[in-house]
């Protein structure tokens, strides 16, 4: 536990916590608050965005005039003009005037500048002004002072109309082919100027002097007061980071974390002693707590992710499926309460996570199908939505300012909670724990080992099914893990597959292989089905929780039929009684005790020649009393009231199975 606390404290942010909780538009419930030191008021995100837009509007997009583009196109124009003129005119005295007119137009266009608006700065464009850089000299230019492709052609068309000796169509075609923008947008320089301007924006506005009243008790937290409180809170928490109080903060965090961790340990000590004494299970619980709180600390440090993205409900889901509902609820409450001290708006956080966690626990209280995972996820998501919507409406008083993006965050969190399924499988393998998911798979009668049992020892298989029904009904009534006891009942006699014909339920009429054996040999074969079952289960990687049912379902009782037969036939011979006893141990859980009783009662009921109500009731009482006399139930957490309930359920179910009718005494008139 100490290592777990140290790990969590190490991961926590090293910042002092502001001790007041407040909300915009709500009444300040704390004492009058005066500034403990002078501080600058931070601008709101809206104010910073307005400043940013204002600064960006003052930065004109930067263009460069590229000289070689004009020179290259003018030279190309001369060559094209000569070739095309010769091909069109054999002799024409106006050649020089046409060439001169074309060159003058191109020089005019490139000297002034040709721009392509579509290849400009896009959403950076502001108005009709731009900064034009020519020969490393910058100047502001109006966009209308520059030529576009269309504007240049229109100008050339008008100009050439004035010269009668020019071939306008001829020149327009060549000029159009040699128009290319030479005023090019400079993305890098524009971005640099914008970044320099943005970096100069002040994050603060105004100053609050030490001792100045910020808010009075009972007054409403207005926008201005809210921003002042935020400013002092941020300054307060940042100011301690580099001071000498780091060790004091760590001590406080250690005490804060150690308290709920100690409560978790006390809960396990008093109510789940089996987990407290099992280092593997205890390590798993502490590991889950440490990991979820460390993830929260990492998110708080990075401040890039929303704290509600963390799948907190994964903790109660895993604990519930690996242990029980009460343990899941207690651990979830303590983890969420501790996390509430670390996050902003702690009460809202705790409220949302507690309600969602309780929904997760209740929705998988009895896990019977995998589809319950999906249903549980939908219920958790619905709980988040309803609770958050209620909180938002309470705070805002309308639907206008609800943070609808939170609904997507809750959805992602719930989807991440489904990681519980593969994590449970991993934890089972690493820590040797059996979850209800595994128990569901084990109770499937189509599993390979149960199919083998049904084929090789059909009588034993039917016996196991009846035992499972009896034990499950009893454990439901007295309280316990019904899924576990059913799985244990289905597998408790798998060792009989090795020698099925030596057990009465699998024997054909008229043949009994024990007739050829001595009594002690027969007893050894009967007893061996326990050790064979254990070896078979471990070879098939059956969980130890199920192996325990195989070990304990006969406890340390005797194989009385062969023992009494030996004493009757060989009264003078001395034989070690332990040869006729099962190796044990005796049941050490309530579920194992119920299985032992159900197994004995069901097997004995098959030998009844007249399975009427009276005989069945007598049989159940005799077998249960015998187990008690033999001290087979002393280590199991079972009460006399539980035993009375078990008797009643066994009698009722066996009477129903054998269709026995209760014989009522005849009326006095009938007797006479």
Compute the average pLDDT: 85
Based on CA atoms alone, the radius of gyration comes out at 44 Å
Flag low-confidence runs: 240-244, 661-672
**What quaternary form is this?**
single chain
Globular, elongated, flat, extended or rod-shaped: what is the shape?
elongated
Please give the number of β-strands.
8
Binned, the helix content reads 55-70%
Spatial order of the strands forming the largest sheet: 5-4-3-6
Strand content: under 5%
Helix count, DSSP H or I runs of 4 or more residues = 28
What does this structure look like?
This protein has 672 residues and is mostly helical. 61% of the residues lie in helices and 5% in strands. It has a 4-stranded mixed beta sheet. Strands 1-8 form a two-stranded antiparallel ribbon. Strand 4 and strand 5 (137-142) form a beta hairpin. Helix 1 runs antiparallel to helix 9 (246-271) and helix 1 runs parallel beside helix 11. The longest helix is centred in the middle third of the chain and has 26 residues, at 246-271. The protein is elongated. The two termini are 79 Å apart. 31% of the residues are buried.
List strands and helices in order, with pairings:
Layout: H1 2-11, E1 33-34, E2 39-42, H2 45-58, E3 62-65, H3 67-88, H4 95-112, E4 129-134, E5 137-142, H5 149-161, H6 168-177, E6 183-185, H7 187-199, E7 204-208, E8 213-215, H8 223-239, H9 246-271, H10 273-277, H11 279-302, H12 314-322, H13 325-340, H14 346-363, H15 371-396, H16 405-417, H17 420-431, H18 436-442, H19 448-456, H20 458-478, H21 482-491, H22 519-539, H23 544-552, H24 560-569, H25 590-605, H26 613-629, H27 640-657, H28 668-671
Parallel strand pairs: 3-4
Antiparallel strand pairs: 1-8, 2-7, 3-6, 4-5
